[in-house]
Every structure is written in structure tokens, then in C-alpha cells.
Amino acid sequence: MMAEAPAAAASVLGGLALLLAAVRVFGLVSQLVAKRTREIAIRVSLGAQRADVIRMVMLQTMRPVFLGGVVGMAGALGISALLAAMVVQPDMPDLTYGAGAFSPVSFAMALAILGAAIALASFLPVRRATRVQPAEALRNE
Q1: Rounded to two decimals, what is the model's pTM?
Q2: pLDDT tens for residues 42-55?
Q3: Low-confidence ranges of the chain (pLDDT < 50)
Q4: CA pair distance 80, 126, nearest whole angstrom
């Protein structure tokens, strides 16, 4: 039981870090999309379909997320390989508790949670912005 305590503590701290990162990214992306309410209102007033505006903003938001995910995964793989090479010593205990240096499930879950937080953070404000009357949005700015 004592041997599993560091792994449990690391899992809890890692989960909290992921949750904090997701909340922070959600707030930032929500704010960035909400600032575009005037632009979205102009597009809707000029005849753009709401679904097209939502699709446009989602693509603009998710493109950097995809690129960042690819670069981040490549960096994580490189660092995992480096750490795996550094801790290969016969008298060293297995600090990953059998998970290995690269855990594809952990990496995929972190990427999926952050991607979902960003997608939700951009979808909710843009959906709300497309429902605002264009005259009201232009008047409030």
C-alpha cells in the first residue's frame, strides 16, 4: 500500500493540473470569442447563416489547437524517451509503477480533455453571439 502512495499522489496532482489548465483555457477562449460578438453580429446582419458563422469560428479556433496538439505530442514523446533513457539503471526502482515512460492513454486523455474544453469554450459564446440581434450588438459596442 505504501508503494502505491506516490503514484496516487502524482495521479491526483496531475488530474488537478489538467483540470486547472482546462478551466484556464476555457476562460481564455470564451473571452476571445465573446470579444468577436460585434464581428459575428455584422456577419449575421449581412446575411450569413448562423451555422456557417459557428462553423467558421470553430474552425478558426480548433486549427491552432490541432497544430498545438501535434507539436505537444511530439515534444511529450521526445521528453518521455529522454526520461526513459535517463532512468534506466539496474538498481533504480520502477517509478512509473509499470506504466512505462510513455502512456498513450494518459497522453490521449489529456489531449482530449483540453480539446473538448476549447471546443466547448468557443462553441458556447459564438452560439450566444449569433442569437443576439445585430442592432443590439452594434449599439452596445
Answers
A1: 0.71
A2: 888 888 898 998 89
A3: none
A4: 38
